[in-house]
Batch of 2 targets.
Target 1
Amino acid sequence: MAFLEVQGLSKVYPGKDGRPVPVFEGVDFSVEQGEFVCIVGHSGCGKTTILNILAGLDTASAGVVIMDRREVAGPSLDRGVVFQGHALMPWLSVMKNIAFAVRSRWPEWDRIQVELHCQKFIDTVGLTGAEHKKPAELSGGMKQRVGIARAFAIQPKMLLLDEPFGALDALTRGVIQDELLRICAATRQTVFMITHDVDEAILLADRILLMSNGPRAVIAETVRNSMSAPRARHNMHRDPQYYPVRNHLVDFLLNRSKLYPGGEESRASAPDAPQRAAANVVHFRH
Amino acid sequence: MSSRDFWRATALSLVFLTVLLGVWHLATLPKQQASAANDEYAKLMGKDTKKTEGLPTPAQVGETAWKHLADPFYDRGSNDKGIGIQLAYSLARVGLGYVLAILFAVPLGFLIGMSPLMHRALDPFIQVLKPISPLAWMPLALYTIKDSSVSGVFVIFICSVWPMLINTAHGVASVRRDWLNVARTLEVKPVRKAFQVILPAAAPTILTGMRISMGIAWLVIVAAEMLVGGTGIGYFVWNEWNNLNLANVIFAILTIGVVGMALDLAIGRLQKLVTYVD
């Protein structure tokens, strides 16, 4: 059994006419320990809902999530979350924001232990010197780093990232991606991450889940990233695997993602639409 | 604001003050007696012509103020106490009623803010009770409590409670979902969540309610003390009106204004302490 098992997950919301509309259904996937998995799909396919269910912040209409042989039935310190909008408490300094999490994890620690632990993670994300600044005094990139440090600091079994770099400019995003890659490689952290950015997925993920358009979204394809690790942003595009993988992902997002049961075109008429059950695993080889 | 603007504004304020005092002075100058005959008549009648009738001049009020401020804490019986003592009585009533209101409104506001059910259940009561003039409660308070001084405290309580209650409930209800989710994923216990996440997040809104409450309480105490009598700055105003000592009345009015401003500034300071930039 894999470290994280998601089986038959679906989420149903009441529609306009009162009839229930599934946002996504029959979502199955697994994540191995130490694996970095990205999920990519258009807005409205329920990616954030899936992540929230994994975090325990939302409940599924059907299906189970099993992590480390235990069913996920609510939020837990075992799963660290980095939120889309950093979610730092603006009345606390950087250090205190992280300390708030650390104290939750280890309530028995004294002040010095907590501070030393926080400092280690502040240094890891490159925020040394900004310990006593309030979030309002930080740039967007620095705020998101604090969010990442806070999630890592509780040393969770799994990290959930909800489009953490969506609001950042390209330059800052690149720098933090490199940092995340470095920290994850060093800690062998298991990560599940939502992204819109195909290049981000190729750089970070070992495996990429592609979701079809909602409603009735499914995981249409699972793409194993065949580019050799360790990957780096500055020479990634020279890897012979880069363009095949990238083209496959872009092609899915632009063309194939709407051919599945919920997609608009398939509902109009698309006899050759792939069956949702037949989620094909694409494996690129050189 | 640059320091140049500050000095300009100050200078302009001083000009306005001078104009105000000038107009006041001219309007209240002792009237020239029309004729010598009248003058003689007045003397015959034993009236002192130097004594003005009507409103006192600024100088007279200034003189009265000086007298009061030189000895604010004397106590010569129930109708003759120093201004400091009268203010202390009023402030004590306001303080007591206000603290009781905080103890009642903040926890209840938390409950209403956290629970949509309680919000809906209690909303009709709040909507009906809120617009009632606090003085309308006075007869009921006097009848049930049977003590005029405590009734004054009750009136302050009832008028301060609503803004605090409504603002606390609103502040608590609108704490950002993200922060609550952070607390949830960190398995933060309810009490710790209330004090370390919700309270600091809602504090600026709660303090705004407390500031409004203090303003209302200070408005109401004067009227309440006029009604129940005995002690306090409101009673002082009413007593001096009965004595027809308008200089004392004007002095008391100015004192009420200055103290009210000081109270507002104090809470404003407090508000600044808990305000965060998001």
Target 2
Amino acid sequence: MRLLQTGRWITVIGLALLPAVYVRAISFTPVERMQGAAQKIFYLHVPAAIWTESAMVLVGVASIFFLFLKDPRLDRFAEASAEVGIVFGSIVLTTGPIWGKPIWGTWWTWDARLTLTLLLFLMYVGYLLLRGAVTDPGLRARYAAVLGICGMCLVPFVHLSVYMFRTLHPQPIVLKPSAPSLPGSMLATLAFSFVVFTVLFVGFVTQRYALSLLREQAAPHA
Amino acid sequence: MLLADGLRHAFGAVRALDDVSFTLHPGQTLAVFGPNGAGKTTLLKVLAGLIQPRGGRARIEGGRSAVGWIGHQPQLYGQLTVWENLQFWAGLYDVPEPAFVRRERDLVARLGLQAYEHQRVRELSRGLVQRVAIARALIHDPRVLLLDEPFTGLDRTAAEEFRAVLAAQAAAGRVTVLVTHNVEEGTELATDIAFMRSGRFVDMAPRHGRGAAEIADAYRRAVSGG
Amino acid sequence: MLRHAWRLARKDLLVEFRSRTAILSAVVFTVLVLMVFNFGRDPTAVAAVDLAPSIVWVTFTFAAMLALNRAFQLELENQALDGLLLAPVSRSSIYLGKLIANLVFVATVEGIGLPLFALFFNVRVVPVLGPLVGIIALATLGFVAVGTLFSAMTARTRFAELLLPVLLLPFMIPPLIWAVLATATLLAGRPLSEAGGWLRLLAAFDIVFVALAFVLFPATVNE
């Protein structure tokens, strides 16, 4: 219960800060020259994308440890991360086209970053479907772990493909090897947004994990 | 020969095995009687090495290649003939060719399968399939037999023949663990009897020549009361 | 280990050959797709060569799905899987045996599909046959390896035939894309070196995921 409350508080903080991101993005950050106001979606889109991918890594790592240690907490954590991951993935997949339409003229492009997120989204869907399809909890955890590890290992391959591809998506301007080429205030807004999204991620995962724990305590598997 | 030491296992919150220990030597046949859900199948699976127990250990001399299993599922391939099935399973256990030929002929004769040897298993009746399953379990000459309700689906004659086969196995020094809820069928073959309930051995003792009726009585008492 | 794997694969192929349903479905579907695509396109608007790689790979993928779906179903019919696990056969042998059987199955369908495709679409594959077969082999190994692993899991679930493709989809898309790109390069008459990057990715994918499948397979069958 305490865990759930902690999770709730964290989420509330995150949600409270979120409007601050909007305000800062809209009023205090300069409008980008070439893309106009639509570019502001970037501040939501990018942190969500980072976390969608990171969530998969977390699922994978937790799965590896689970197969060795057999600790059900790791499995619960993986499940929570996957569910939050799919939510963040949905955010990316909706904000992407909203950003894209005014700039590129189409709702969807097969550009690199959107494709990666779509793949991640599909992996999460598969992961959660597999969990749903297996009734025995021990089996479910093991199967999910196997899938999670495979999912995590696929991610680098998609990245490699991305860099080998010519893409419509703006070249990485923040995570380039050299210094980020964003002007200071934009970078600050992005960083702030990233922090807020991190808080939200942690909050959601904590809540989800706590719910999972509560559910198990209420109805121990027969 | 076969050692079970403090076996413990659970499925979630349900205790399937609760500190089960015993040792069996060549020639012994242990019949384990218990109601459904007592943990009998789990015990066999742990002995066979299919399940890793949460606690304790099980050891069978000779490892997996010394174990033969007969359950209610035949573990056969329907599209293959009887002979092909036997050959396949013998191959997995690395049975040398001449030994396979000899044993196959012997088992087929003993179990009355001559007429069906080259028929596909899916075309056979349930009773015949069970006989083939017995042949499959014995084809690699296992030193330990694990039987999970093996009389299911056998008619009287087949059951008789099966009992004879098992008796011969025991005489040849094999160890057998027979698990069933049918006291009548299991008692005759057993040298030792155990009653199982909720994962525990409620009682385990040599048979001492007791008959099926007597055992059934003791079983009822052990399982309902104690 | 190899010996056991081979015995297992042989058994699988024997069973499949006897029942014939899967391979027939795969071949029929291949022919169907090829015909539909051929009649569906406007030869003046779209050159066969442009459409070719996608068509080829769609058919091969479906064939792989059919093979994968039946791979472990067969073991569950009479609980033969338990028998396999009881035998002194390493888990890796079981996986390898299944993998070999699946590969042979898919290769058979591909072996029929490719000439048919060249025939229907009038695409000259003979000049590039060697490298083309190489690409096909690389991509097939990749998704069959992952598919065999996943089918071990989905076989015991309720909607196995639906779940397997869903799980497999994200893992098939990258190798398929690389294969299609490499195939397109080849069929357009370009030198193979231009497709080098995609081929390297395919090879790396194969190495990583075959190894991963071997390592993870025991977790799917052991309790």
